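re: ur question from the group chat, yeah i did fold both. here u go
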Amino acid sequence: TMEINDSSWEDFILVGFSEYPKAEFIISLFVTGFYTMTLAGNMAIILVSILDSQLHTPMYFFLRNLSFLDISFTTCIVPQMLVNIWSGHKTISYVGCIVQYSVALALGSIECVLLAVMAVDRYVAVIWPLRYATIMHQQICHLLAATSWLSGFANSLFQSSLAIILPLCGHHHVDHFFCEVLVIVKLSCVDTGSTESKMLIARLLIIVVPVYIILTSYACIAGTVVRIPSAEGRQKAFGTCASHLMVVLLFYGTIMFMYLQPKNNYSQNQGKILALVYTIVAPTMNPLIYSLRNKDVKRAMRKVIWKDLVERRHERY
């Protein structure tokens, strides 16, 4: 037992894409570019929605939460990944690995619930437009956001605590570019069937329940939009939901494919590529989808940038 405990505290080796050195370098450039865009795009969304008083609405409050989540999620994974690729060491400490998979799992879980909350917000906006401000008041928005964060951390605490107690018996080669909880569980030298079953139930709850809420909300929205007599009214109602729906499809499409498919259909390389999509590509796309499709965000960005330019000109003269 002592040997197992001692070996468990060794550093982990993140294999990543090291079997393809040329591809790994190209991937590192691709990841650096997307990470820079994620930081810039999401910071822009946060700043613009705070600085422009017209964007002090429930939709943009939740969007700020989503942008902050995306920045945190990619920052939890990308810098360590790039250091490992460029330094060639490929190591992460035992504690660092636990922190990484716990935080990544928490933030991914929060996003699952937050996207469902945002679907409910769009449902209220389309179904009860005149009562929207009364229903989605500040306290309820803060309560819904807090529910997303608490449920995400609770899910991570449950799954991470199951993973931490498993003996690794010296298995420290992680066939991934970051410490992902399911990959760490597979390193264990004991039967993990019971642990994986409990984790699957937790994943089903945190993925399937929000998906059900999203689908139900959009089914009701679609039913209402179809009954709107004017084409302009239908287009406006659909426009308020289109950005959110695109983000949902991108995020849930990859995450469900990764975590809810049978084990015998799963290839580790396929898993790494899908992980690149939901950890690096999706957080970059969110601000692009919202800013390019949304007139309010584009107007606010122009207003903030123009105000900044005018102030600089006054300072200069």
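okk and heres the other one u asked abt
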Amino acid sequence: MIRSDEGEEAVSAMVTEVPDGSVRNILEQETLKWVFVGGKGGVGKTTSSSIISVLLAQVRQSVLVISTDPAHNLSDAFQQRFTKVPTLVNGFSNLYAMEVDPKMEDDDLSDEGLEGFLSELTNAIPGVDEAMSFAEMLKLVQTMDYSVIVFDTAPTGHTLRLLQFPSTLEKGLEKVMSLKNKFGGMFTQATRLLGLGDEFSEDAMLGRLEGIKDVIEQVNRQFKDPDLTTFVCVCIPEFLSLYETERLVQELAKFEIDAHNIIINQVLFEDEAVESKLLKARIKMQQKYIDQFYMLYDDFNITKLPLLPEEVCGVQALRKFCQHYVTPYKPSLVRGTIEEVQQRISTLRLRLQEAESELERLQGK
């Protein structure tokens, strides 16, 4: 799938005329209810999901951004503490944020009655705890009236597990049914003998699991509707990230989930006035993978974002960086212009002065 050095120039020629994309299509799609942002770890998913939610807050009545990544970074991005309860983001009247742990918390499952049995069930079937926790969170979210919900997801593997939750719960129900068929009569007698009552009956257990499964299936149908749901893939221009993005796109297609936006982070632009040999080599390497992104995903909106000298933290920084998500980034100084040459001369003079000062200092020792 990923090309070798042979024929790179031809590939580059094919993609040089491709216009840069943006996330405007997401902002203009008024029917969208769910926006997932995902990709490999450390590529800037949280920054992108934060900025997309900030942009959506400008055109929607109310927006909720949820982090389902165990290593929560939303609080760092907005420089505000968030919990599992939706909290209004400082500086906004219609943007809320929350951080949820996809694992069941200890106090969510007591050791008594039905809850104790469900706790045992979650240990028996891998992934059921996450599925049930996610279902409970979705139930909560559905009772709230948000125009659109943005998910800052965990790295790719966790995201794909999240999409498999309906089938995971199906297995859970099958397990319960097999237990019921095998030990039904004995189970009923035991519960009566112990005085546990109706709460611990087969019907109560099945009802609870069926209810959770219904929520997941209902939401899953929405996830598969391109009018309601889209997935934004975030990456950087490197081999492993390209490979991971391709894997993610293929899996999303398998789950019938719409994806037509790719954000490429940490790009060094060729037109930028760069003198460092290391940076020039890096630009050449990045361009090879950027070309391949354009070739593989020619029908996607590809947004390229610059590598910055500092992190994008705080509402002010997020709002400032928003512009590059809707308008293609252009370097402030383009190589070959009068301004760029003047800047280069000024930089060289400054370096010469610093070198002369250092020489005088060494000679004076």
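fwiw on the second one: The first helix runs from residue 8 to 15. Residues 1-17, 104-114 have pLDDT under 50 and may be disordered. idk if thats what u expected
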